[in-house]
Each structure stands twice: as structure tokens, then as C-alpha cells.
Amino acid sequence: MGRKKSKDAALDNLPASIRLTAKKKYEVLIIKELDNGLYGECRQDYDGLNQIVLASKQFKNKKDVLITFIHELIHAISFEYLPDKQQLTESQVMKLERGVYNVLKLNGWLNI
Ligand SMILES: [Zn+2]
């Protein structure tokens, strides 16, 4: 039995769903790839479901998995907590993704 790749372990350790508000959960869905070739996608009210989707094929390591998960989570937080006209832009989400990842990492909160 070979050692699992760090990206596979990181994907296995993600929760099946994540609660964004007292009333709303997002399902965490891991698929092989997205049609648009992206690493991940945040879907609001997609056939009645809210989902964070991760495309496993794109990830090389644990860091890719965690950064993408944080990125999609920030989109979800933006959608749930900011008014429609103040949604974060893709560029803002990308900067925050780095910031959140670094703060969690530097404080030892990323041991999944
Ligand atoms: Zn994005």
C-alpha cells in the first residue's frame, strides 16, 4: 500500500458540507474536472443546492486543494454576507485567498 498523495489526503479530509449561516449549508463536492477547466466553482441555488465544487484533476498538492477551497469559501461568504451590489471581485477574492491561507498557515490552523 503506497502512501497517499498529499492532495488526496487533503481532499479526503475536507468536510462533506460546510455551514455558512445558521440557515444555510454548502455541500462540498469533489469531482474530477469542471467543463470550464477551472480549479473550483461556487454554486448558489444550483437546482436548489448550494455547492463548493473542487476539480481534483487540477491539484498538484495539498496547498492547491486548501487554497482553492478557501477561494470558493470566500465567494460563498461574499454571497451570503455582502449585499448584491458589493460582491467581491475575482481579483479581491484571489488576494483574500492568499491572505486567509497565510494567516491560517502561520498560526498552525491548517493541519488537515
Ligand atoms: Zn473565483
Name a few traits of the molecule:
binds zinc ion, four-stranded mixed beta sheet, 112 residues, alpha+beta, 3 helices
Q: How would you explain this protein's 3D organization?
A:
This protein is 40% helix and 21% strand. With 112 residues, the chain is of the alpha+beta class. The protein has one domain (6-106). A 4-stranded mixed beta sheet has the order 1-2-4-3. Strand 3 and strand 4 (49-55) form a beta hairpin. Helix 1 (6-13) runs parallel beside helix 2 (62-81) and helix 2 (62-81) packs across helix 3 (90-106). The radius of gyration is 14 Å and the shape is globular. Bound molecules: zinc ion. Zinc ion binds next to helix 2 and helix 3. Zinc ion is lined by residues 71, 75, 90, 93.
Instruction: Give, in order, the helices and strands.
Output: HEEEEHH
The domain count comes to: 1
User: What is bound: which ligands?
Assistant: zinc ion
Outline, from the CA principal axes?
globular
Largest sheet: 4 strands, mixed
Helical proportion?
Answer: 40-55%
**If strands are numbered along the chain, what order do they take across the biggest sheet?**
1-2-4-3
Strand tally is 4
Offer a concise description of the structure.
This protein has 112 residues and is an alpha+beta fold. Helices cover 40% and strands 21% of the residues. 18% of the residues are buried.
